[in-house]
Amino acid sequence: MEKRILITGGAGFIGSHVVRRFVKSYPGYKIVNLDKLTYAGNLLNLVDIEDEPNYEFVKGDIVDAGFIADLFSVYQFDAVIHLAAESHVDRSIANPMEFVMTNVIGTVNLLNAAKEYWKGDYDKKRFYHVSTDEVYGALGETGMFTEATSYDPHSPYSASKASSDHFVRAYHDTYGLDVVISNCSNNYGSHHFPEKLIPLAINNIKNNKAVPVYGKGENVRDWLWVEDHARAIDVIFHQAKTGETYNIGGHNEWKNIDLIKLLCKIMDQKLGREAGASEQLITYVTDRAGHDLRYAIDSSKLQHNLGWVPGLQFEEGLAKTVDWYLENEQWLNDVTSSNYQSYYETQYAER
Ligand code: NAD
Ligand code: TYD
């Protein structure tokens, strides 16, 4: 094996796309997917590659330092690509401590294990931390986040990711660990848990349920096809210089309400409904506390230095995403069967 790579959070939305890409593209790498399988982690996301000889799944918690140390000693990793996290802003508002534990303590546990097991060999190892544009805070009507933008997180989620980013940089500056960080905009695509805007809206439209739009629907997000994100991670992992940060984004800004209307139009066509039928489901609800107005990523550093550009155009990606959810009813039923209903009722009853 050329490299033994630990990918954390590989059973989640983005992680499953990253695991699939690395397992398929690099038969010479051994990919170990470590995941706690929280409500957001699902091994069904990886059934197509689970029997590949260069893939192994390990169930475990990054908050457990002893377990992480043992894992490093058993597998002798050459690199870590760290995606495991609590990732939903609304849940962070309801329960911030889980975000501190997984996103901050879990990340520091991984850094400590890397620092210990890679001692004397830092130039041959790599710790890749996957982060979010939300660490930069909120933009007004204009401007974009660059790699030089100061951190200004507003939600417990973004504060915990910002904190983990700072620890990763501190381990580079203090101990000389080889680290890279990328901060990406909102992803969309298949296998996305239906608590986030796009899959939640698809699920609700499909079931003729109200589509909750926070506030006036005027908040803006920059949407990127998840497989374009996985490709960016591949490029950055292999080509970035040590200590570097890259912003990843789609140059694809949408007001929430415009996005939902486009989704309704696509779904009317796919479901054979009368034009305008699904839009009737749009329901404005109480805004999210501390709701960031606008995110927009300037990814020109990545484009110029490493030649990455976003691939899929948004309308096409959204239509493909809708197709995937309509064709994978069993997956949707599975992920919405256990605690999802109680989460949904608590989250949306208060609005
Ligand atoms: P997700 O919630 O879909 O998946 C997270 C995964 O981490 C799950 O499989 C879960 O079981 C696992 N996990 C959670 N706690 C764990 C723990 N303590 N130990 C081990 N595994 C644990 O998240 P996602 O949307 O795929 O995001 C992945 C990463 O990318 C996160 O770090 C997130 O901050 C970042 N990110 C996400 C987006 C986005 O739009 N979703 C954008 C930019 C960055
Ligand atoms: P989300 O998918 O939770 O991602 P993030 O908060 O990390 O950007 O939300 C995307 C946008 O959609 C955000 O502005 C909040 C809004 N939103 C709604 O209007 N209704 C919803 O039910 C959800 C989940 C989000």
UniProtKB/TrEMBL annotation:
It is an enzyme of class 4 (lyase). Its EC number is 4.2.1.46. Residues 6-321 form the NAD(P)-binding domain. It catalyses: dTDP-alpha-D-glucose = dTDP-4-dehydro-6-deoxy-alpha-D-glucose + H2O. Signal peptide: none annotated. Keywords: Lyase, NAD. GO terms for molecular function: dTDP-glucose 4,6-dehydratase activity. It comes from the Bacteria. One of its GO terms (biological process) is nucleotide-sugar metabolic process. Pfam families: GDP_Man_Dehyd. Its cofactor is NAD(+). NCBIfam families: dTDP_gluc_dehyt. Belongs to the NAD(P)-dependent epimerase/dehydratase family. dTDP-glucose dehydratase subfamily. This is dTDP-glucose 4,6-dehydratase. It comes from Pedobacter cryoconitis. The lineage of its organism: Bacteria, Pseudomonadati, Bacteroidota, Sphingobacteriia, Sphingobacteriales.
